């Protein structure tokens, strides 16, 4: 059985919690585009399409139908 390969310390990926707030630029862009909406998923992680799948799909379908 082979041993798993372990990367040296500088190359290891560290877990970083993303900041789940839209930037001021995102909010400004939404205000500038006529008819735009900004959906904010408070507390959602980077992979919100998985963790908030039902809401994301509902929002996406609503967007596509509009």
Secondary structure: elements and pairs:
Elements: H1 24-32, H2 48-51, H3 53-65
Write a concise synopsis of the structure shown:
With 66 residues, the protein is mostly helical. It has helices at 24-32, 48-51, 53-65.
Describe what this molecule looks like in 3D:
By secondary structure, the chain is mainly alpha-helical. The chain has helices at 24-32, 48-51, 53-65. The radius of gyration is 18 Å and the shape is elongated. It starts with 23 loop residues before the first helix and ends with a helix. The mean pLDDT is 77.
Q: Average pLDDT value?
A: 77
What integer value in Å does the Rg equal? Answer: 18 Å
Distance between the termini: 56 Å
Note the main sheet: none
Order of helices and strands: HHH
Question: Structural class of the secondary elements?
Answer: mainly alpha
Shape: elongated
Binned strand content: under 5%
- Unreliable stretches (pLDDT < 50, length at least 5) are none
Kindly report the oligomeric state of this protein. Answer: single chain
The total of helices stands at: 3
What is the count of β-strands? 0
- Overall helicity: 25-40%
Features:
66 residues, 39% helix, elongated
